[in-house]
Amino acid sequence: MKLLIALFALMLLTVGSASAAPQTHQVYVNTSAVAGQSGYLEFQFNPGNNAQSAFAQLLSFETSGGSLTGAPATAGDVTGALPGTVTLGNSFSWNDYFQGFNFGNSIHFTFLLDGPAVSSPNGTAGGGSDFGFSMFAADQFTPLLTNNPSGLAMTAALRTDGSTALNYGPSTSPVPEPSTVLLLGLGMAGAALWRKKSNRNP
Amino acid sequence: MRRIRFTTAASLVLTLALALSASAAPWKFAVLCDSRASYSTDGLPAYYDATYGISPYFQNVASALSRETGLDFVLYPGDLARGKKPALNDTQFAAALDQWNLQMKPVTDAGIPVYFVRGNHDAGNLAATWNSHITIPAVNPIIQDSAQSGLTYSFTHKGSLFVGLDEYPNGAAGATGYDGSFLKAQLAKQAQHKFVFAHQPLWNLKSGELGPAGLADDLNSGGTDLYFSGHVHSYQRITEKGYNFQELIIGTGGAPQDNPTLVPGDPNYLADPNLKVVSYAGGAGGNARFGYAVITVNDDGTISSEMKFLDAPASAASTVSSYDSFKMPAKPWKFGVMSDTQWPTSPDGKNPNVAVNVIRHLNQKFIDQGVKFVVQVGDLTDAVGTNNINLDVRATFSQDLYNSGIGFYPLRGNHESSAAGAIRFQQIFPQTQSGVNNQTPNMVSATMYGSQTNSNGTFSVGNNYATETGLEGLTYSFDYNNSRFVFLDQFTLPSGTSHANLNSTDVAWVGTQLSTRPANSHAFVFGHKGLITENHNDNLFNSTNPDTATGTTWPLTNTFMSYLQNNGVRYYMGGHDHMHNRALVTSPDGLSRVQNIIGASDSYKFYIPPTMAAFNTQSWRSRETPIAQELFTVGYYIYTVDGPKVTVEHYAMPNGCNGDCDQTIDVIPYDTVPFTRHESYGYSLNGKEVLVPQGGSYALTDTTAKAAASESGYLGTTAAVLSGINGSSGKDYNNRALTKTVNTGWTPAENGLTSDILTLWGMTNSLATDFTDLSNPNYHYKYVVPGEQTDTYVLSLTYDPRTLTASQLQGGEFGLATRSRDGRWINAVAKNGGGVIRFVQGPWNAGYALGSYGIDPATGSAWAVINHGGDFAVAPFALTDISSSVKAKTSGFLYSRVTNKFSGTLTLTNSGATALSGPFVVWFNNLTAGVTLDTASGIYNGYPHADLAAALDPGQSLTLPLTFTNPAKALITFTPVTYQAQ
């Protein structure tokens, strides 16, 4: 029983608290509704008011049925290109990676948040930094697969205490990380054990 | 005991006193400063004087000033010459000051003294050089600051205090400072008005130019009327929210002028959300304005100011033109009233026929309250005593008041009704004829209190003294500021002629005094006996009862009361009954109605109303509408006159013995029970009174039309009590239900308000008898002191929409406001007892609970559901910076190709330990140039702000969305400052 509680607490701590380690999130995007259309993908990572330094990295970009088209357009502090690693700093107001794309059934990518704002939040910053993902039609203006008025399909807000708040739109969803899956599995196993033990001691 | 001899010398004193009788004609003085020249490096040849460092324009300003008529003196707060900057040695500085004096000679030759303090340019050289070449006039006695002799000082002129402050104790190069202890000591003095002059401003929009920290607060707490300064070369009239005085910057003596019309973004711009430049003149080059301000102290207590600029600054014969003429309303002032102080025997010696122990305590209360004078409504003694010694005792123990510059104005009661008493009264209280106080001819030292020290000279209070022939100094009147005071004597004449009640001659005299008072002035009438008495039966007109000999008593009463009513006398006040009682009394003919106030006892004696059986036989009771009553307390009254408004506060404490006290003991258990305010009431000359019986509606409407007919500055506002019922059930000792007298009054809109100011009195419950414990066999009389909260009611005021933005109307930080104890305008619902604060956009409806407030743009009115009285106006609520206890953090700002905007959020978190009630206003100071906050609630002084109508418990957060237009995609940064808008 004690082990179960400890594991459960560990799981909660891992999911909800600020972390000094880089934060990695996997995102699944269901693009089947626009499969066959050409358009654009946009990734941006922008600072708030007097934000502490941080960066976002796009890793492991994959698509099912889709394809990257043309050269990306970038603004601000951006290096790299998909499907390789793309790094977006937060030293400019707009750090943006804009990539042509033929939509297939899905997209899968990982993004990592790191830098001093994550590893050692100073507590004095006036604002955090936000990561945003959007999809646009070929006109580069009409947002796809979102009801967000700004066209955002998914965001991650890096707060001034180093924690992150994720917000997914209707077409996007998180992909559980292996460690989270492991913890969840342990928790479920523990719960089953507890129930079994309870049944033996009415 | 000494015997009084009314000697020739005493006659001379009285004659002299009469000659010295105060006459409060208007008088005036001028203010200007900053005549130093430019530097050679300034490139301003027109202002440059290589030899003396004095602006060439100054001599023309001085010439114009010398032609100004009627000036009593000039104040010059600094920067006479360029001084040590860049390198004037002390010899050269002395020559510069001599030259300045020469250029100012036309003014001094015109008989106009000049008072100085140093500016920063004067402070770079030796103070000794300054002192040896600048002479502070000795026209008025100068009180020097021993730590800064010749530099910081004060003087009193015609009853008003002037303090000249040196701000450079650390030298010109050091931080500014001042002698706070000297300043506070001077401002603590009694004075009709208080003016302070020093070189650097307290407030202006140019950074790096302000005077010493803390000075504004000291001036405010000291009751300063006006602060004069210079340093920034222009004319500016500035108010700062939360402060009760104005600042006049009059740096117009000829020095090269800045262009201080600063706007946000200028590197020298000093952001101050509470600052308002009411008037400004000046500027570089051809916009320069040179001149002086003329300040007039008017006899009604108001202060007028007029800036006079030279039409041709390059000409010594220049005419002047008026600019920014304004009039400050009379500062509120107070007088005190006390009642009967007889005390027949005093085994412990504390109260030798006179309640000296009570008097001494009341004196201190009156001193603490800062009253200008004290009225006593008769029965000064239990009996005048052998050789009138007891009257001498009473006069002796006025000394504490005299020593504090407070006048004392008594009248006789039935306990000193003899002719001998009348004569002695005239001798020992000469001020009732002359206005000159502190002339007690025969101080009594033979009491346990010993000799009383006279630490003050004679002083005058009021003006226009008049007295009835045959009752000289006994029935008398005088004026103080905007009020006429009439005192009645109904006892034996000094000649010995019988006189037991007011007669037709007396009444006619009163009528004349009231009808000849200045326009728009108050009138207060005092006598010993009441229009109707509450314990006794006798009154002003009859020794038996008010309904005796009706053939003569009633016509006299009718005439007297018509004089009172028709001349604006709202309160007639007497004593005699040794209880606090307020009632509206209607004249026998039913045509006049005046509030009759009976003063609480200040003696050993505490009366009660007659028994119910007797009471029910008293036909005159039908002419009484009881308002409030309290038995068995010692009390006093503070009247505050604020222009057309009068507020009376009744302070009292239990006598501790539920009836007549044992004469051997002290009445006041002052070590354990303090005086507290038991009730407050008032009226205004420009308002209306509505009687609201129990169960009656408070509904009323009033406008500023009547006020605007006699006073200027009104925006034009309508007030309405939309809903509310008098739910009180208080009764007096004889079980009569107490009626509320709800009064309105108006004051013109002040800085930052969008309506005129409504004062509402009489909404609280009445001071009543507590019958809740009546079944208790050990029941003793108890009274119920009303609390601050009232019945719940809805008040609305119309507002002037011309200065409002749509966001202000919708934000909730603007609306019906009330004045806080520290003078700020706060959300009216914030002073409620209970309820939940909630903003509503739109009209009031009956479903809205206590704490709801709103704006109805359709009718141009602000409303609130409240349960308190006080002052009300429609205003932006005062902003209190709470940034230290509220964390303001943003998210990142994501860009949208759809909207072409950057968006994010701002989260406010209460990091303190106490709950914060909103609304809140967040200012986005120093927002990146070229970036616009689209979601701002408004723009003020160039800074966008966002408003939230909410509350924050400790640890709680609020999030508001932010959207920016940022065409250059510049990094978005700003300094958030969070205010509580209450």
Tally of DSSP helical segments of chain A: 3
Strand content of chain A: 35-45%
- Major sheet size, sense and barrel closure of chain B: 8 strands, mixed
Number of domains of chain A: 1
The CATH superfamily of the largest domain in chain B is: Metallo-dependent phosphatases
* Class from helix and strand fractions of chain A: alpha+beta
How are the strands of the largest sheet of chain B arranged? 4-5-6-7-8-10-9-11
CATH class of the largest domain in chain B: Alpha Beta
Number of helices of chain B: 17
The unreliable regions of chain B are: 1-23
How many distinct beta strands of chain B? Answer: 58
Quote the average pLDDT of chain B.
Answer: 90
How many DSSP E strands of chain A?
A: 12
- How far apart the termini of chain A lie comes to 16 Å
Unreliable spans of chain A are 1-19, 197-202
Give a topology summary.
The complex is a heterodimer of chains A (202) and B (982).
Chain A: H1 2-16, E1 23-30, E2 38-47, E3 55-64, E4 67-75, E5 78-80, E6 86-89, E7 96-102, E8 106-114, H2 116-119, E9 129-137, E10 152-158, E11 164-168, E12 172-175, H3 178-200
Antiparallel strand pairs in A: 1-8, 1-12, 2-7, 2-9, 3-6, 3-8, 4-7, 5-6, 9-10, 10-11
Helix pairs in contact in A: 1-3
Chain B: H1 8-19, E1 27-31, H2 58-66, E2 71-76, H3 90-103, H4 105-109, E3 114-116, H5 127-133, E4 143-144, E5 153-157, E6 160-164, H6 180-187, E7 194-197, H7 215-221, E8 226-229, E9 235-240, E10 246-250, E11 275-281, E12 291-297, E13 303-310, E14 320-328, E15 333-338, E16 342-343, E17 353-354, H8 356-369, E18 373-376, H9 389-396, H10 399-403, E19 407-410, H11 419-428, H12 431-434, E20 436-437, E21 459-460, E22 463-467, E23 476-480, E24 483-487, H13 504-515, E25 522-526, H14 550-566, E26 569-574, E27 580-586, E28 593-598, H15 612-615, E29 624-630, E30 633-642, E31 645-654, E32 676-684, E33 689-692, E34 700-703, H16 705-710, E35 718-723, E36 740-747, E37 757-761, E38 768-769, E39 783-784, E40 793-798, H17 806-811, E41 814-819, E42 825-827, E43 838-841, E44 852-856, E45 861-866, E46 870-876, E47 879-881, E48 886-890, E49 894-896, E50 901-910, E51 916-917, E52 920-925, E53 932-933, E54 938-940, E55 943-948, E56 951-952, E57 957-965, E58 975-981
Parallel strand pairs in B: 1-2, 2-3, 6-7, 7-8, 8-10, 15-18, 18-19, 24-25, 25-26, 26-28, 43-44
Antiparallel strand pairs in B: 1-12, 4-5, 5-6, 9-10, 9-11, 12-13, 13-14, 15-30, 16-17, 20-21, 22-23, 23-24, 27-28, 27-29, 30-31, 31-32, 33-36, 34-35, 35-40, 36-37, 37-46, 38-39, 40-45, 41-42, 41-46, 44-45, 47-58, 48-50, 49-50, 50-57, 51-56, 52-55, 52-58, 53-57, 54-55
